[in-house]
Design brief:
This protein is α+β, with helices and mostly antiparallel strands and about 550 residues long. Helix content is about 20%, strand content about 25%. It has ten helices and 26 strands. It has helices at about 10-15, 15-25, 30-35, 170-180, 210-215, 225-245, 280-290, 355-365, 410-425, 475-480, and strands at about 50-55, 60-70, 75-80, 85, 90, 95-100, 110-115, 125-130, 140-145, 155, 160-165, 185-190, 255, 320-325, 330-335, 370-375, 395, 400, 435, 445-450, 455, 460-465, 490-500, 505-510, 515-520, 540-545. Strands 14, 15, 16, 19, 20, 21, 22 and 23 form an eight-stranded mixed β-sheet that branches. It is globular, with a radius of gyration of 22 Å. It starts with 8 loop residues before the first helix and ends with a strand. The model is unreliable at about 1-35 (pLDDT under 50). The structure holds fe (ii) ion. The site of fe (ii) ion has 6 residues, from loops.
Length: about 550
């Protein structure tokens, strides 16, 4: 096997994506996309033909998503210890495969080997551990949380010289710093890609965006096959492959989808609304997940039939609702609010009634020592966007959020569901209520004392903005709307760390008697690149179990 030396452009262009991409991307700078699509160089591990690799695990299962430098004509095999699993082809070209191993032993470090059908390694073997059994009592679990790692790579020429999203190499550098603290798992909470297909402002509202025109999707055809699949890969691949490469091969990931993962911004006008998600874009969201990052493995406490989360051929995997369960030490509930968002006025919801029931039952159960809610959009702050729990909207004249102006198309039922959820979270007598959310381009911590008429008394809920990885200059709330993320009028929120508009991430240590959160921030406008490799936490939150 040869060591990867840089990126083999000829190999990429010889592949389907490159050859057809030239035809479908016309004037688009394919050369740029090719360069951005290269995975980061790996130190100390021979990636062989692997372009990217993202695993997830439970106590008994492993699911891997893998792409290769060239199409494989026959199914490769994954060996997990003594178990052999034949790969399942996820695209029509044979570049993307998944491997799903079940009936594994809990809390076991396996050596994984990927082999071509005729034998021969596809990459060097590597270790991956299953989680401890649900009934076991591990002493420690460290999780990484971040959000908004997507976006086509922008440019950076030094402090004060940047354009677009953070270059993918810098995002990878941030994630490598996070990985240097040796987390046991990672939550990537939403917005893994930004390729919104429609325009939401100005005279062209509702029309195809520039990206939408470049992709030139046939909305009435399948996502798979012909030009649609090529366009999907050309848009999504360069936003994911170079950010992660194979860096998380031994760190299970939990990728939750949010608005942009459905190929649209969270926005509404008289012409068009992003929800309910249009059928073709739902298929794009599903296809992106199928190719690039793992769905959620089943969990004994999560119903397999939660709405909008399964698809034919996916078996018991969930697309939108996930569980991280680490013995009796920690449970993290992940929920995408976009798939089941409804528009029924006072009865509208973000998550379907069955999903809400699952969340509330898990929150009421006392079998784990720590429980975290990880929704795809934030509790505690508003950026004045449409698809938020809260009715606050920007008062253009006063430059502040207000509830005195009606927020167009906002649904009262969303806030009612918010209050039911926080009531359950705040009602945990043996655990500290904790929410770590995605979507918002900022890092922050707050203590939620009251939501409407629900008062949390001596046990406020801690709500956290985990930190964005790829945010563009225009992505930070104060640039988009001229005002930073703000506590909504509905809440009594004590801002321990008022939202900071930097790139960053959060590490959570789960210990038997407490959770310890450490938050990291890198200021692209002030700090040099090499400061990323030395980042230390700027804020620590200690959350002991009550009583
Ligand atoms: Fe989002």
């Amino acid at each position: 096997m040869s060591k990867r030396i840089g990126f083999d452009r000829r190999r990429f262009l010889a592949g389907t994506a490159g050859a057809l991409g030239t035809a479908f991307f016309g004037r688009f700078p394919l050369e740029t996309m090719v360069e951005q699509g290269a995975p980061p160089a790996v130190q100390g591990w021979d990636a062989g033909l692997v372009r990217h690799l993202l695993p997830t695990v439970s106590d008994s299962r492993i699911l891997l998503k893998v792409s290769f430098d060239r199409p494989l004509s026959a199914a490769p095999t994954l060996r997990v210890g003594t178990t052999e699993v034949v790969g399942r082809q996820n695209d029509t070209a044979g570049e993307h495969w998944q491997f799903y191993a079940a009936d594994l032993r809990p809390g076991t470090r396996y050596e994984l080997t990927l082999q071509q059908s005729g034998g021969g390694s596809l990459c060097e073997p590597w270790p991956l551990s299953t989680f401890p059994a649900p009934g076991s009592s591990p002493e420690r679990f460290r999780m990484l949380f971040f959000t908004c790692a997507g976006g086509p790579g922008g440019s950076y020429g030094g402090i004060g010289q940047r354009q677009g999203f953070l270059p993918t190499t810098i995002r990878n550098r941030l994630l490598r710093r996070a990985l240097s603290f040796k987390p046991d798992a990672a939550v990537a909470n939403g917005d893994h890609i930004y390729w919104d297909l429609h325009t939401w402002e100005g005279d062209n509202a509702g029309q195809l965006s520039a990206n939408g025109m470049r992709s030139n999707f046939d909305f009435s055809a399948s996502v798979f096959g012909a030009s649609n699949e090529v366009a999907m890969k050309a848009a999504a691949g360069p936003q994911i492959v170079p950010v992660y490469g194979s860096d998380f091969r031994s760190v299970p990931v939990f990728f939750l989808q949010d608005d942009h993962d459905h190929w649209e911004n969270d926005a509404v006008t008289d012409e068009i609304a992003s929800y309910p998600v249009p059928w073709f874009q739902l298929q794009l969201a599903r296809a992106t997940q199928q190719l690039y990052y793992p769905e959620f493995l089943p969990d004994q406490r999560r119903p397999n039939g939660l709405p909008w989360s399964g698809a034919d051929g996916r078996g018991d995997l969930s697309e939108s609702f996930g569980t991280v369960r680490y013995g009796d030490l920690a449970e993290v509930l992940l929920y995408d609010v976009r798939r089941t968002m409804s528009l029924g006025g006072p009865n509208a919801v973000f998550v379907d009634a069955e999903v809400e029931r699952w969340l509330i039952e898990c929150t009421a159960a006392t079998s784990v020592r720590h429980l975290v809610h990880a929704p795809s959009n934030p509790f505690g702050w508003s950026a004045g966007k449409w698809g938020e729990w809260y009715p606050d909207v920007l008062d253009l004249e006063r430059g502040e959020l207000t509830t005195g102006i009606e927020k167009p198309y906002w649904q009262e039922g969303w806030l009612r569901q918010h209050d039911r959820l926080v009531q359950a979270i705040g009602g945990q007598s043996e655990r500290a209520g904790l929410i770590i959310s995605g979507d918002l381009h900022a890092i922050g911590v707050g203590r939620l004392h009251r939501a409407g008429r629900v008062d949390f008394g001596t046990q406020p809920i801690t709500t956290v903005l985990g930190g964005p990885i790829g945010t563009s200059i225009r992505g930070f709330p104060s640039v988009v709307r001229g005002i930073g993320a703000t506590p909504p009028g509905h809440l009594d929120l004590e801002e321990s760390v008022a939202p900071i508009e930097d790139h960053g991430f959060t590490l959570v240590d789960f210990l038997p008697d407490r959770m310890v959160l450490r938050q990291f921030a890198w200021d692209v406008d002030v700090q040099p690149l090499d400061a990323i490799g030395r980042l230390e936490p700027f804020y620590t939150t200690d959350l002991p179990r009550p009583g």
